[in-house]
Amino acid sequence: MQTKTGVPASPGIAIAPAIILDSEEYPIPERHIDRALVPTEIDRINRAFDSAIGELTELEAQQHDLGQIGIRDLFAVHRHFLQDKSLRTKIINLVNAEAMTAECAIDRAFGDVHQQFAKANDRYVRERAADIADVKKRLLKYAIGIKESSLDTLGQEVIIVAKDLRPTQAALLDPRFVKGIACDAGGKTSHTSIVARALGIPTVVALGDLTGSVARGTQLIVDGNTGIVIIDPTSDTLAEFRAAAESIATLQQDLQIIRHEPAVTRDQMPVTLLANIEFPEEIEHVLQVGAEGVGLFRTEFLYLQAGVEPSEEVHYTTYARVIQAMQGRPVTIRTMDLGADKFTQSHRFTPEANPFLGLRSIRFSLKHRDMFVAQLRAILRASALGPVKIMFPMITTPKELTLAHEVLAYAQSDLRAGGIPFAPDVPVGIMIETPAAALMSHRLARCAAFFSIGSNDLTQYTLAVDRGNPQVADLFSAAEPAVLELIKTTVDGAKTAGIEVSLCGEMAAEPKYTMLLLGLGLRTLSLIPQMIPEIKKIIRSVTVAECERVADAALAADSAEQVLESLVMRTRPLLPQFFK
Ligand code: PEP
Ligand code: MG
To answer: CB of 505 closer than 6 A to ligand 1?
Structure first.
């Protein structure tokens, strides 16, 4: 028996024999051709493009029939990429200029794009490199005339082990037979992982060299909750994981039953559960789990995916898509939270010594007014299509909020002057992410329609612990009493002023914090859609009075450890499958 640890990418436990998927790299030798053959090669390129686009269109249509909207979008994204004329032109130009083979030119052109993505500082952009490799492979398949091994005729339960499963390969897996996925490479937000979650296949990625350690038929356990893969488990371990898998299945059934029930406490206090999203593709899942709206739409992906500033039109179509898909439920769009580790350090903007304390978030927006106005105009225009709220990130002082409001007022008057419609009464709120904002929340509330507590950054700035630095990860805890005091101050500040307050940091998605947050007075939580059913189950199992007692005890504690111990003790009986 051997245990490997990777990154959990799709929850659940799978136990089945492995099937190894070849990485199917097509080695492309650098080969030049006789000039007379250039037109033939160009013809091959055009035919490969047309066939690949045709195949993607067909796959897209099939997914539509099956009702898999999110997966259909993935094929559409790949098709759009191939339909972009500049890519085809670049490949044809290479053949013309250097008299190289079609496959050589495809390999070279895609190689450049792939490198740009793979080297990006930002995780989201890096993880899009897998899509580039996927599209390239499809094109090469047609250029060279290779037959791909098919996975759609498995006929028995397996766990797929691969170096890196391509997103469109994952999209075509049949969850009746593919019980789990384990990959050497990959990331949590790659399209492969998103697809695995959509299909409900337990998945662990970034396992390093799993493919080198597993043979076809080896029994595997994939634990998509903890990120562990066990090779050739002992009978005791197998029994332990079978029991865990069963109890998760029971929990899933319970959660399914309450899916359409309201999130109310036992004493009938309603709680609003909203979804945090990063990509429009997630909306299908948001609706499936019964979220009442989007409480946090992080818009950074628009800048990070393309690596360039998106146009107002790109912003608009993205927001329009989400708003329309949400069918009248409110969508809170957070304006660009760039800076720190996202976008600015790798662009033309000056590198900073302390980016997390530097020109990030709303500070960056206020300094790059044109970018900010473009986004605000797009959000306002989209507000004509359905209920929208605008949320400014990391507001630290009342002055910053005034300045942000001024830019918004400018965007509104500009649209008005152009006769472009938008909702006149879009609520404008702020994220409370710094101790300064929490302490001044009573004053900030005068100029904000709502607060959303960003507990990730609030923890980082309160404790002076970089949230992304593994060396101090043990010091990063939202359960520190200092953080809890600031959450309470913010909730009280909002309540006194009569404005809405929610919490949208990771703590909202962690069952152990649910009672505490309700006890601190929160009645709206925004979290990753995957966890909405579990959080709802806890809410439906408790009373407000119980939660208030939990919060009082936490506020009186001396340390995060003490707080966590009592939270786990209170929550374990409500969701035993979650706490081993
Ligand atoms: C937060 O800081 O808690 C938050 C929700 O924002 P982000 O994680 O995007 O910084
Ligand atoms: Mg934040």
So the answer is: yes
Q: How far apart are CA 181 and CA 14, in angstroms?
A: 9
- Cα-atom radius of gyration of the chain, to the nearest Å? 25
Distance (Å) from CA 393 to ligand 2 centroid: 7
Enter the tokens of residue 294.
């989007």
- Helical (H) or strand (E) element with 160: strand 158-162
Report strand pairing: 13-21 vs 158-162.
Answer: parallel
Q: How far apart are CA 130 and CA 434, in angstroms?
A: 35
Q: What is the pLDDT of residue 147?
A: 66
- Evaluate if pTM is beyond 0.70: yes
332 within 8 A of 391, measured Cβ to Cβ: yes
Q: How confident is the model at residue 461 (pLDDT cuts 50, 70, 90)?
A: very high
Using CA atoms, how far residue 19 sits from 207, 214, 258, in Å, is 16, 9, 36
Mean pLDDT of 5-24: 87
CATH architecture of 261-578: Alpha-Beta Barrel (3.20)
pLDDT at residue 345 is higher than 60 = no
How far is it, in rounded angstroms, from Cα 348 to Cα 286? Answer: 36
CA 67, 69, 74: angle at the middle one, nearest 5? 135
Kindly tell me if the per-residue pLDDT of 577 is higher than 80.
no
Q: Which pLDDT band holds residue 15 (cuts at 50, 70, 90)?
A: very high
Cα dihedral: 301, 304, 306, 308 (round 10): 120
Residue among 78, 191, 285, 368 flagged as catalytic: 191
Q: Is the CB of 298 under 6 A from ligand 1?
A: yes
Instruction: Check if CATH label 1.10.274.10 holds for domain 35-145.
Output: yes
| Delimiting residues of CATH 1.10.274.10 domain(s) in the chain | 35-145
Q: In ligand 1, which atom is closest to the CA atom of 457? A: 2
Domain 2-24+149-236 of CATH type 3.50.30.10: yes
104 is catalytic: no
Which atom of ligand 1 sits closest to the CA of residue 452? 5
Give the CA distances from residue 252 to residues 121, 249, 255, in Å, rounded to whole numbers and listed in that order. Answer: 37, 5, 5
